Amino acid sequence: MIYRLVWQATTVAHFLVIAYIALGGFLAWWRPRLVWPHLALCAWGLVQLSGLVECPLTALENWARARAGERGLLPGGFIDTYIEGVVYPEAYVWHVRLAVIAVVLASWAGLAIRIRRRRRRPARTPGTSAAPEPEASR
């Protein structure tokens, strides 16, 4: 029972990580510090696309599935098991990947614009209005 719970929790975590990779840049518009974990996960996603290393979440899920007496994920891991051919047809893999990359880049461009606008705004001190005070006539 516990292994089944571990595998299902890992599946949920996988979906959340993938959603954060795709949309986390927009969360950074709200909280700019969130861009750092987003950048890290995007870099990790690119490493995963290379196929050189196994995702630790995939390894954990396969371990828990084996202990629960279930078969592991397909050789392509989480994406091949739960997303490709399920959420979108396998023939559109590169279309979807390019769309996700475009969404991520758009979120980063929007974040850069928002940060630039914040820096250009004059700083407000508590208790003052944003409008400049009129100059005294001489």
UniProtKB/TrEMBL annotation:
Domain of life: Bacteria
Bilayer-spanning residue ranges: 12-30, 92-113
Keywords: Membrane, Transmembrane, Transmembrane helix
One Pfam assignment: DUF2784
InterPro entries registered for this protein in UniProt: DUF2784
Protein name: DUF2784 domain-containing protein
Organism: Microbispora rosea
